Amino acid sequence: MSAESDAQKRAPKGRADLRVSALLVALATLAFGLAWAAWFADDAFITFRCLDNFVHGRGLTWNVAERVQAFTNPLWLFLLAAPYAAFGSIYWVSLAASWTAVVVLVALLLRHASALAMGTVCVVLLAGSKAFLEYSVSGMENPLLHVIVAAATVTMLRMDDPLRRARRLALLASLAFLTRADAVVYTGALCASAWLAAPRWQTTRAIALGWLPIALWELFSLLYFGVWLPNTAVAKLGGGLPRAELAEQGLRYLQNSLLWDPLTLTTVVAALATALRWPTRAARPALAVAMALAAHSVYVVAIGGDFMSGRFLSAPFVVAVFLLARLRPRPTVCAATVVLAAVLAVVSERSPWRPRPGPLGFQNATDPYGVTDERAVYYAFTAPLGGGYGPWGRMADGAAYPPALKAMERFEAGERVQVHTQVGMLGYFAGAELHILDPMGLGDPLLARLPITTTSGDSLFGRARDSVGRFWRIGHLERGIPEGYLESLKTDENRVAHPELARAYALLHTICRAPLFSARRWHAILAHQRGATAEAIELWRREPR
């Protein structure tokens, strides 16, 4: 009898040890995957250049002469500022910040999961997602955003007090907005659900106070930059593209994800379907999370997705994982999920778990609609394990990136204003004194507001064409440089040939370059807010050329 009792006691302990061992294996796999996939996106260096200018007293600028917000992630920038000022290496500072965010996320996930087995399943899902692996350690703001949306999801699912839940969700919505403005679609929807659950004065006041950081940043943005929206958002969401064609491109973005990263969207769809049949009393919060997740997904489609494959889907994927983490499936279901996740993680030829033959050019890493496997392009040059110009290589000293070296040579020869595309690493390494004019308008206040250029022939990055015959790549909408504009930048005089466009440039020039509190600058800001700049550009656009 005693021998039988001892066997019964050892069996649960054995199963517990097995679960702990499985979790440790999953965590080790995730850690290895993140180290293997780590790289730096060229777009991350746009923020890094602004960060470098800020730390060295040149303001929150892209080109030093102009107060233009060329970044959309102020919270990420400010979090990196102090360690960057102290240690001076943007590589190690951003890598450390990204890894810290991932550790916080995983700790929150394991604490939130319904059981140890489900926590293991969710860690496996994280390790299998191409979008999560690649953008968690890419120099971009995604890992910070992952923590914020995960905290918002946990708050919605587990906090019962309506007032405390509304207060915390509103604060997290502010943090999400300051990390990437479009994340407020998800967190704002959660705030709306929290308010509807308890629509009284205290809830309204709690949400309003939580949104105060957004209001303060927008006031600062108006004071310092003279506009409400980041210049990059104006450039990427403008251009005059038809909404229907943007939505079509957004659907192609999802299609690209299914082909190159099938686990990510499969997890999102599974979470949405599960929320409709939530088995516990937490069905209403789960449904609120699912509706907010669906709203964010619709937004991604509506804006045409992004040119970086998977970038805009990593945060929705994290939300889906945290939603699924509350389930209590049978052990056989957990095991089957792990096997399915492993298969989906490696089935695509673009899987980060597969070895790369070498650096791929843009044409070989881009689908027919302009969506690019950006890591495939930059990994060999920027990754800690890539062996190129990354933290272990020559780029660490800022003197080995070939395009930057050429730009510096031209600068020394007297070309202090230069036209470049792919401006991230080039702008960071070429130095702050070089004024870069990007035809995409990411850092230029005038080009960002112009319609996209009508071109002929297939684009280098894809074959997306709108109804009037323009070829374009989502997120990188090229504009023509107006006659006289380059000379205007070189001389700091308004030499734009067309009078209406010259009027628009005069307003933007005053907003971006005049002293902050000068009367003429504030007259220009008021005129711009009333639509004077847009009106002048529209008159220019309507004239035949």
Q: Which terms summarize this structure?
A:
545 residues; mainly alpha; two-stranded parallel sheet; two-stranded antiparallel sheet; 2% strand
Quick description:
By secondary structure, this protein is mainly α. It has helices spanning 2-37, 44-55, 74-87, 90-112, 116-128, 130-136, 142-158, 162-179, 184-197, 201-210, 212-224, 231-237, 243-260, 262-275, 283-302, 314-324, 331-347, 374-382, 402-412, 423-430, 485-491, 499-513, 519-529, 532-542; strands at 417-419, 435-437, 464-465, 471-472. Helix content is 62%, strand content 2%.
User: What is the H-and-E element order?
Assistant: HHHHHHHHHHHHHHHHHHHEHEEEHHHH
- Our Rg estimate from Cα atoms comes to 25 Å
Strand order, largest beta sheet:
1-2
Indicate the structural class: mainly alpha
What shape does the CA trace take? globular
Q: What percentage of amino acids are in beta strands?
A: under 5%
Compute the number of helices: 24
Low-confidence stretches: 456-463
Overall mean pLDDT score? Answer: 88
Main pleated-sheet profile? 2 strands, parallel
Percentage of residues in helical conformation: 55-70%
Number of strands: 4
